[in-house]
Design brief:
mainly alpha; Glycosyltransferase; two-stranded antiparallel ribbon; two-stranded antiparallel sheet; 17 helices; about 0% strand; DUF2264_N; signal; UCP014753
């Protein structure tokens, strides 16, 4: 009888213990994250498979060989996906890698990512590594090299912590893409960014490639903060994916080298502000936005520009930092909430989950990782108003809840 009682007591204790443990796990799971914690959680989920595998020299083994159903040359698109994913991931998390301090768990995570980024870059540049990356396989790599260049420009810490040998290898890898003639479109900015990278870090650079891109973009400015992408206007997000963020970065770097573009850079600044206003208004009350134009599978990168101008603390007076934070948080939630957003931990091709028909002929497994550029404001410390100020409604929420709200007018800014 005593033994039975002891056994019953033991089972009850185990049940209570298990229940307490389950409650603890549930409590941890249900803990409400603040916006910054949520962004870091989503950033980590998105980019971890890329950088962890690259650091372990296993990216080519682990990364799926997926292309768009509309692909033009499947074998080639798979060959170039590795430099593509490297540049896109690093360009988005670079400001966060550059940041110092913060909460202990964030500091620890950043330390890990810095180690992965450096090890990953070294593997990408090591001709003896499994994950060695050629930068001169095809024209697409002019694009992808520029994202690597943009990442290092955004996070000089990466450059400063690469040894001299790997600095030289990275420089030479980027220079090899000069052999590719850019498409007469936003691609001119990719050539210019590669030269700006060289200029920033003290190498010989070609001012003509920069000048050509800047002068041509000035010719393509069409009004109300927007540029055509080449000779005709398209209602897509290339003003945000590429044009405005690249022009802003070029203004910073080239503006330190010469005063020749001073007036142009002032115009660019004003256009940046105007397009930020338009971008914020495109975000619906539920975080959706018009799914129009090519490259729509880039998800949150549709707001690369808005994230970039927030990071730069250059938002126009009409936009508070906190309303932009809340609007971008809504976009992150909406574009990543579908259960088919990831497949075995890797981003799928689609806007809301896996939607193969939304892909373009040039898309591969690396392409959707440009979405990491929505995370740029993580480069601001937690004490910055962007993160510290209380939540605020963004324009669509105010308008569609019936609030009286100031109307909007176009600006020429030629």
């Amino acid at each position: 009888m005593k033994i039975k009682n002891i056994a019953a007591a033991f089972l009850m204790l185990m049940c209570l213990s298990g229940s307490a443990m389950a409650q603890k796990v549930k409590s941890k799971k249900d803990a409400v994250l603040n916006d910054r914690q949520f962004w870091i959680q989503q950033m980590d989920k998105m980019v971890r498979p890329v950088l962890q595998n690259l650091a372990n020299d296993s990216l080519r083994i682990a990364m799926p060989k997926v292309t768009s159903v509309h692909v033009d040359n499947k074998e080639h698109r798979i060959k170039v996906q590795y430099v593509e994913v490297l540049g896109r991931v690093l360009s988005g998390i670079a400001p966060w890698l550059q940041l110092e301090g913060g909460a202990a768990d964030e500091v620890a995570l950043r330390k890990q990512y810095r180690e992965w980024a450096l090890s990953g870059l070294k593997n990408a540049l090591d001709s003896n590594a499994k994950d060695f990356m050629n930068f001169d396989i095809g024209g697409q790599q002019l694009v992808d090299a520029s994202y690597v260049a943009l990442a290092v420009v955004r996070a000089p810490w990466l450059w400063e912590n690469l040894d001299k040998k790997n600095q030289t290898l990275l420089m030479k890898s980027i220079v090899t893409t000069r052999k590719f003639k850019p498409v007469f479109s936003n691609w001119l900015l990719f050539s210019a960014m590669n030269e700006a990278f060289l200029a920033k870090f003290g190498y010989d650079w070609d001012p003509m490639r920069v000048d050509y891109a800047l002068q041509q973009m000035e010719q393509w400015y069409t009004g109300d903060g927007m540029y055509t992408d080449g000779t005709s206007f398209a209602f897509d997000y290339y003003n945000s994916y590429v044009i405005h963020p690249y022009l802003a970065a070029l203004s910073d770097i080239i503006g330190e080298k010469t005063n020749a573009y001073k007036d142009m850079f002032e115009k660019i600044k004003k256009r940046n502000e105007r397009y930020a206003i338009i971008q914020e208004r495109l975000i619906n009350a539920d975080g959706t936005y018009p799914a129009t134009g090519r490259s729509i599978i880039y998800r949150g990168a549709a707001f690369h520009h808005l994230a970039d101008i927030a990071l730069r603390k250059a938002l126009p007076k009409q936009l508070s930092a906190e309303q932009v934070r809340c609007a971008l948080t809504a976009v992150i939630r909406k574009t990543l909430e579908s259960p088919t957003t990831y497949k075995n931990g890797w981003l799928t091709i689609g806007l809301y989950g896996e939607q193969p028909e939304l892909g373009d002929f040039y898309n591969n497994q690396g392409s959707p990782y440009i979405a990491s550029n929505i995370f740029l404001p993580l480069g601001l410390p937690a004490s910055d108003p962007f993160w510290a100020n209380p939540p605020a409604k963004w324009s669509a929420q105010k308008i569609w809840s019936g609030e009286n709200f100031k109307n909007d007018h176009s600006e020429n800014l030629k």
